[in-house]
Design goal:
It is a single chain. The chain is an all-beta fold and about 400 residues long. It has helices spanning about 15-20, 360, and strands at about 55, 55-60, 60-65, 70-75, 80, 90, 95-100, 100-105, 115-125, 130-135, 140-150, 155-160, 170, 175-185, 190-200, 315-320, 325-330, 350-355, 380-385, 390-395. Strands 3, 4, 9, 12, 13 and 15 form a 6-stranded antiparallel beta sheet that branches. It has a 5-stranded antiparallel beta sheet with strand order 5-8-14-10-11, with no helix packed on it. It has a 3-stranded antiparallel beta sheet with strand order 18-20-19, with no helix packed on it. Strand 6 and strand 7 (about 95-100) form a beta hairpin.
């Protein structure tokens, strides 16, 4: 019978202390301070212990802050002259002094909100020094309104804040962000020791990694978990412990890959009820499949299909044999979708009335069906008549 249509409803502390906001690490003593060289020069190389280089700019440290805030720390060696002829000196310990404008490129994650900018400096001169968060875009628009023109003279290292006004949300698709320090004194009485930028990551993330080419975040463990994400109990719905996105439009650009030498490549489990699953794949809007397996697949429990199933190959059942092994048996195929029920009836006086099982009738169309008879004994011929939605009759010819 034909089925009915159905709907299925960090950080190294010593390193931070040396390279971060230095407090008293290089205070003037009798007007003498240790320095590298005097004159126009480039920042130290990675071999000098000042981090990796990105597009010619030394990258700062990322340091965990409060519960929601992360800090990006700079020392003086992160600031390079806006003009290569600007005389300047990088001080041993992480400071810089010089005459002119010096810049440090900010490399903050998309969507981060800047909440704090401070500079650490020694300003023991009557001239002013300018501290700025400078932004510009590809159309030539710039903004230097976040500025502190500092004139207070002091023989001690001080921390000076740059007023932000409204919170600044980073948009790397349009804008470039820099810290600027402008000094009119080329001498050890006006030294920039560093700067610090505090920001809140999108979604209040506590770890951020960025790479132009390479690995943004890497976790390594010799006896435990390399990278772990945990959402605290009682958190709001819709939270995600680990999120992977690949926004590249190039072919074969994957969001997440997992390879194991002696174990499962990817393991998922759920402690929720039967509306949840240990592993879920969602199809994309452009025809991408929700899942694909290239190789043998093993299911050790029930398998449910809430949709159509197409098999390019044979379908078989492995039935247990009396010798302890299994035998493959195959189902009969048809070009149309049919369901079959089997039964027995006995002719009395050359006729038998057969009722269709109610459970079977509930899942098939009973307005048109076929009945095949198989007689067990001598007879004058059998035929089927009186077919209704409730049953049918079998008659013996000339009975």
């Amino acid at each position: 019978m034909e089925p009915q249509e159905r709907s299925e409803t960090d950080t190294d502390a010593a390193r931070v202390g040396r390279r971060g906001l230095i407090a008293g690490a290089a205070v003037l003593a009798g007007g003498v301070i240790a320095a590298r060289t005097v004159g126009a020069q480039t920042p130290p190389s990675p071999e000098d212990g000042h981090g990796g280089v990105r597009s010619g700019v030394i990258k700062p440290l990322y340091v965990a802050g409060t519960a929601d805030t992360v800090y990006q720390n700079f020392d003086g060696t992160h600031f390079i002259p806006a003009n290569s002829t600007n005389p300047h000196t990088y001080v041993i310990g992480g400071g810089i002094y010089g005459n002119g404008e010096f810049r440090a490129l900010l490399d903050l994650p998309q969507g981060a909100t800047v909440t704090e900018i401070t500079f650490s400096l020694l300003h023991n001169t009557a001239s002013q020094t300018t501290l700025t968060l400078y932004t510009y875009d590809a159309n030539g628009n710039f903004d230097n309104s976040r500025i502190n023109t500092y004139t207070t003279q002091s023989a001690s290292i001080v921390t000076v804040a740059v007023p932000l006004g409204t919170p600044l949300v980073i948009d790397n698709s349009l804008t470039t962000y820099m810290l600027r320090w402008v000094s009119s004194t080329n001498g050890p009485t006006d030294i920039l020791f560093g700067a610090r930028v505090g920001y809140i990551l999108p979604g209040f993330a506590q770890v951020y990694g960025s790479a132009t080419n390479g690995i943004g975040v890497s976790g390594v463990s010799n006896g435990g978990i390399g990278v772990q994400g945990i959402i605290s109990a009682g958190s709001a719905s819709g939270t995600v412990a680990i999120n992977a996105q690949n926004r590249s439009t190039a072919a074969n650009s994957h969001a997440l890959t997992a390879v194991a030498t002696a174990g499962h490549g990817l393991v998922g489990s759920s402690l929720g009820n039967n509306t949840y699953a240990g592993l879920v794949g969602n199809a994309g809007p452009n025809g991408a499949r929700a899942g694909a397996f290239y190789g043998d697949v093993v299911f050790s429990a029930n398998f449910f299909v809430l949709g159509n199933q197409t098999v390019y190959g044979t379908k078989s059942a492995a039935l247990a044999h009396t010798d302890g092994s299994h035998r493959l048996v195959y189902c009969e195929e048809a070009p149309d979708s049919w369901l079959t029920d089997y039964g027995q009836a006995k002719l009395v006086g050359g006729k038998a009335d057969v009722k269709i099982d109610a459970e079977f009738a509930g899942v098939v169309k009973t307005d048109n069906y076929l009945v095949f008879t198989s007689a067990e004994g001598d007879h004058n011929g059998l035929y089927v008549t009186n077919k209704t939605a409730q049953g049918f009759s079998v008659r013996e010819t000339k009975g």
